[in-house]
TrEMBL record:
Record organism: Dermatophilus congolensis
Main subcellular location: cytoplasm
Name the UniProt record assigns to this protein: Translation initiation factor IF-1
Keyword RNA-binding attributed: yes
InterPro entries in the cross-refs: NA-bd_OB-fold, RNA-binding_domain_S1_IF1, S1_domain, TIF_IF1
Top-rank taxon, per record: Bacteria
Gene that encodes it: infA
Pfam family name, one: eIF-1a
Subunit structure as annotated in this protein's UniProt entry: Component of the 30S ribosomal translation pre-initiation complex which assembles on the 30S ribosome in the order IF-2 and IF-3, IF-1 and N-formylmethionyl-tRNA(fMet); mRNA recruitment can occur at any time during PIC assembly.
GO CC annotation, single: cytosol
Length: 89
């Protein structure tokens, strides 16, 4: 029984990793709004990145303004660009 549960837990972990293949999520604050739904975001570690809004946020008309706290996904291939995936209230 315990072995079956361990296999189930590992399967769930692998499925979660497959969804976000090597993506880094980090919090930040929007510094300025740029054209074409791009934003300059200052991350909690002090770096500034260029980020765009994710498709689901566009679909649901979630507005992002300067000074908003957001979660940004960074690709391990280009750490200077990201995608805004969540806005805190």
């Amino acid at each position: 029984m315990a072995n079956r549960r361990a296999v189930h837990d590992m399967t769930r972990i692998v499925e979660d990793m497959a969804k976000k293949d090597g993506v880094i999520e980090i919090e930040g604050t929007v510094v300025e709004a740029l054209p074409n739904a791009n934003f300059r975001v200052e991350l909690t570690n002090g770096h500034k990145v260029l980020a765009h809004i994710s498709g689901k946020m566009r679909q649901h008309y979630i507005r992002i303004l300067p000074e908003d706290r957001v979660v940004v996904e960074l690709s391990p291939y280009d750490l200077s660009r990201g995608r805004i995936v969540f806005r805190y209230r």
